[in-house]
Design goal:
Chain B: The record marks 178 as: Important for enzyme activity. Chain B: GO terms for molecular function: hydrolase activity. The structure holds two protein chains of two kinds. Chain A has helices at residues 101-113, 129-139, 149-162, 175-178, 181-190, 212-219, 222-236, 241-245, 257-274; strands at 6-17, 24-26, 31-38, 41-48, 54-60, 65-69, 77-82, 88-93. By secondary structure, chain A is an alpha+beta fold. In chain A, strand 7 and strand 8 form a beta hairpin. Chain B is built from eleven helices and seven strands. In chain B, helix 1 crosses helix 9 and helix 8 packs antiparallel against helix 9. Chain B is globular, with a radius of gyration of 23 Å. The chains are: A alpha+beta, B alpha+beta.
Chain lengths: 280, 321
């Protein structure tokens, strides 16, 4: 389909500014933006996907134009602006998913700056969140729990490839049967000193102060129960090595429920020893 | 060109009044959603001002879905198709809001409505579901993705089987807005006197329920209504200045129950969107420190054994029959 001159192509429709106002109305016609190099000139082409006809063909000189999001508009509206004139061309992203909008836009701008730009996929060129969050999460292990986007992507990929391969094989036991209100409640009376250690893990936006009563309400809630079964299922896939490390556990703790609980017990014993609370 | 799955980043949310009401708050709309347990006049009257009914049902595909009412391709109101999975609840709410005249709303929703003004239902659905802020508002009430296994085809109760249909008055008719149908469905006119549109809507919904064999339909009804907290507060102030103490005391009770419902919603929403992995871990550590983890494990194992045995027995019985 795309001839050799096509550098980049993605689904986008056109949008038009309503005369005398700042409103931009998107046109529902299905289309695509193509960047093409012809006779050493960069062309931005808008093609009607229904008729396959080119309805707009703009020649762009290096560094003359930028392609940016119209922040005032809701939806995925972008504007092509020129520094040499006040021409404006509006577009809106038509790919059903907005996941790759940023990649397309970064590449469009790459070509607008330098026609010899090389297409790059993946997160934007500025090294943002990725590296910094990974660093932060590994250093502040036990307090918070936040998987980085890369870890999540990796996990999801692992999980989806494992599904069908007996990923949800029945386990010897379920976390739901361990974290029952019946098992937890005695803790509140027998070990009240352990209760405040749990408070940092409660939702930060609770409409009341943390207390053992609130904790009991949470443990009995359907929302918490379903979070436990999600984690239980994820753990049963045996692929949570990277995630459990953030809990200060060794990687093998992520290989199943039994290994996870064993590692938790060891961690508890160790912490008890450190605190000099080794009474039993 | 892209791996287009059918949920496009829209996560499952619970169909709970607290979830809907939080979404409405984010949209800057002075409305809430309440459970509706009956369609009788008294229940409906207590929820006034009532703007729309959301009929939510689990689809037992008995096919032939005999349709009542008539498609209205010329429907002049707001109607968007549901083009991605998991967005159905939000699409239903937006379809309802788009038809409430002179509705006060936040700037983002107002812009989205303005932006999609002249679009056909399909394009409108696409634009709405590709709105990042709306998806974020919707997703903010689903469990955090770090432990959510949605879309991984693991056995899990999904919302896909649930379907949301909105009934509301528009241009002197009761309309049914179903994002999976090509057009709005017109269900006959109504009379402003008495119960107004609600009596027509009741008839339509009751007829619809009656078309399914008893027990074959798992459904619930939600009411989209003016925020009673604001209305009650205004009314209370009026009664107090007029010195009507007895009536005021009655209102105070109503206000209290309304407020405690809000507190419950806030609590539930807060635990709904929290990532509980840290809590699960630290609870287990606490159990272990208290020397209670091993006994709990042993107990959990025997519970699991019993469960498997029971499932087998059930299976065996079914095989024989």
């Amino acid at each position: 389909m795309a001839d050799s001159g096509t550098l980049l192509a993605f689904k986008a429709g056109r949008a038009f500014r309503r005369e005398g106002t700042n409103f931009v109305d998107p046109s529902p016609t299905k289309g695509a933006i193509l960047l093409r190099k012809e006779d050493d000139l960069l062309h931005l082409i808008w093609k009607n996907r229904a008729t396959d006809e080119v309805e707009e063909d703009l020649i762009l000189f290096p560094s003359d134009a930028t392609f940016s999001k119209v922040s005032q508009a809701s939806g995925r509206v972008y504007v092509l602006k020129f520094s040499s004139s006040d021409q404006r061309h509006f577009f809106w992203m038509q790919d059903a998913s907005s996941a790759r909008d940023e990649e397309f836009v970064n590449n469009v701008n790459g070509f607008l700056m330098d026609p010899d730009h090389e297409v790059s996929w993946g997160p934007s060129s500025q090294p943002e969140a990725s590296t910094s969050t990974a660093g932060a999460s590994s250093s502040s292990a036990p307090s918070g729990f936040q998987a980085s986007p890369e870890q999540m992507a990796q996990l999801q990929q692992l999980l989806s490839s494992a599904v069908g391969g007996g990923a949800s094989a029945p386990s010897e036991m379920s976390l739901n049967d361990i974290l029952t209100p019946a098992n937890m409640m005695p803790l509140f009376t027998s070990h009240p000193d352990l209760i405040p250690t749990l408070f940092p893990h409660l939702p930060p936006d609770l409409p009341m102060h943390p207390s053992s009563e609130v904790l009991q309400r949470i443990i009995s809630s359907p929302q918490f129960r379903s979070a436990v079964s999600n984690f239980d299922q994820a753990l049963r896939t045996g692929l949570l090595g990277g995630l459990v490390r953030q809990l200060g556990l060794p990687e093998e703790a992520g290989t199943g429920i039994e290994p996870f609980l064993r590692a938790v017990q060891r961690q508890a014993d160790q912490e008890t020893g450190e605190d000099g609370m080794d009474t039993d | 060109m892209s791996g287009e799955d059918d949920s496009n980043g829209w996560q499952l949310t619970e169909s709970d009044p607290g979830v809907f009401s939080e979404l409405l708050k984010t949209l800057g709309v002075p409305l809430i959603v309440d459970d509706l347990y009956s369609l009788d006049s008294e229940s409906l009257a207590s929820l006034q001002p009532l703007h729309a009914l959301i009929f939510l049902f689990k689809w037992v595909s008995t096919s032939s879905d005999s349709m009542s009412g008539n498609y209205d391709p010329e429907f002049p109101g707001f109607f968007a198709h549901q083009v991605v999975n998991n967005a159905c609840a939000t699409i239903a709410v937006i379809n309802a809001l788009g038809n409430i005249p002179a509705l006060e709303s936040g700037p983002q929703l107002a812009q989205l409505m303005e932006f999609t003004n002249n679009m056909d239902p399909q394009t409108r659905g696409l634009v709405i579901t590709s709105s990042d802020w709306l998806r974020e508002a919707h997703n903010s009430l689903s469990p955090p993705s770090a432990i959510s296994l949605d879309g991984l085809e693991l056995p899990r109760q999904t919302e896909d089987a649930y379907h949301f249909v909105v009934y509301l008055p528009s241009m002197e008719f009761v309309y049914e807005l179903d994002g999976l149908k090509p057009h709005a469905v017109r269900h006959g006119s109504y009379n402003e006197s008495g119960e107004g549109w609600l009596s027509r809507a009741r008839e339509v919904i009751e007829n619809r329920i009656a078309t399914y064999p008893p027990g074959a339909l798992d459904f619930s009804l939600l009411a989209l209504r003016g925020d009673p907290l604001l209305l009650l507060q205004a009314e209370l102030a009026k009664l107090q200045t007029a010195g009507k103490q007895a009536e005021a005391a009655e209102l105070v009770v109503k206000l209290e129950s309304e407020t405690s419902k809000r507190n419950r919603w806030n609590f539930e929403n807060s635990i709904r969107r929290h990532n509980h992995v840290g809590l699960v871990h630290s609870l287990l550590v606490a159990l272990a420190k208290a020397g209670r983890l091993e006994p709990a494990k042993e107990n959990a194992k025997s519970v699991m054994k019993e469960r498997i045995a029971r499932a087998k027995m059930k299976g065996g019985v079914m095989d024989e029959s």
